[in-house]
Specification:
Shape: globular
Strand content: under 5%
Order of helices and strands: HHHHHEEH
Strand order of the largest sheet: 1-2
Number of helices: 6
CATH architecture: Orthogonal Bundle
Radius of gyration: 12 Å
Number of domains: 1
CATH topology: Lysozyme
CATH class: Mainly Alpha
Length: 87
């Protein structure tokens, strides 16, 4: 997880920090580094960043139902964490 801390400003000591680590592991740190999601997180544009989750539902050029479900869940967790100030 060493790459994680250099790519995105972490939400230290929080549920969102654990979520960021899981998301980074799932996507791969190189893909996340090049993403609009990372840029928006680093600029603390959290509402806009939450809209980026659904871009990450493809594998091998195909939209996968399992990734759609996962990203919706991650997006909901992210949004609820922001609403409840869990960061």
């Amino acid at each position: 997880m060493g790459h994680f801390s250099t790519r995105i400003k972490p939400f230290t000591g929080s549920l969102l920090h654990a979520h960021q680590q899981s998301f980074t592991f799932n996507l791969g740190s190189a893909a996340l580094q090049r993403s609009t999601l990372r840029q928006k997180l680093n600029y603390e544009l959290y509402k806009e960043a939450s809209k980026e989750f659904m871009k990450w539902v493809y594998a091998g050029g195909k939209k996968l139902p399992g990734l759609v479900k996962r990203r919706k869940t991650e997006q909901e967790l992210f949004r609820s964490s922001l609403e409840n100030n869990w960061y």
